[in-house]
Specification:
Helices cover 29% and strands 25% of the residues. The protein has six helices and five strands; from the N terminus they run H-E-H-H-E-E-H-E-H-E-H. The model has no long low-confidence stretch (mean pLDDT 90).
């Protein structure tokens, strides 16, 4: 299985918080067959990518090591992706060429919502960001998703702009 990044990047204690039927790991090249794109439809309009375009995008992300970290939770009994999220690391000129993590695309299958998988994804992505040396981690979302992130203990720091 070809993974987006080295599995050891995910701290071991993050795996321990999951039920035994769930597996936390980096995105795999063939996760489109496990419903990754379909899962994203709970977040936004799901793209209709061919297998080739999915693989091309995956390969492009892999060419930027230590930049893109998409994680998935797979339900072992169904071999389906039931939750996912991404942190990408931006390299800055400020703060002595510091790193900023951006969390995006948190999605949890409707059948798995209410089990705090979104919170576990966010916490794991924050751990990955800290492990990469990010001096801050930003989570951007649409206005409609603010209540979810507030339930996860995140706060709105700046006013939301309707144009976003």
């Amino acid at each position: 299985m070809q993974l987006l990044f080295e599995p050891s990047t995910i701290p071991s204690h993050c795996h321990a918080q999951l039920e035994s039927d769930l597996l936390l790991r980096p995105l795999a090249a063939d996760d489109d067959a496990r419903g990754h794109l379909e899962l994203l439809s709970v977040l936004t309009v799901a793209p209709n990518l061919t297998d080739g375009k999915y693989r091309e995008t995956f390969d492009l992300l892999r060419t930027c090591p230590k930049t893109y970290f998409t994680i998935v939770i797979v339900q072992k009994s169904t071999d389906k992706v039931v939750a996912c999220g991404t942190i990408f690391v931006e390299r800055k000129f400020v703060r002595s060429a510091g790193l900023v993590g951006h969390i995006e695309d948190i999605a949890v299958s409707k059948t798995m919502q209410g089990r705090k998988l979104g919170l576990k994804i966010i916490n794991t992505l924050e751990e990955i960001g800290r492990g990469q040396g990010c001096y801050k981690i930003i989570l951007d979302c649409s206005k409609d998703n603010i209540p979810f992130y507030e339930k996860c203990g995140r706060v709105t720091l700046l006013p939301f702009h309707e144009s976003m």
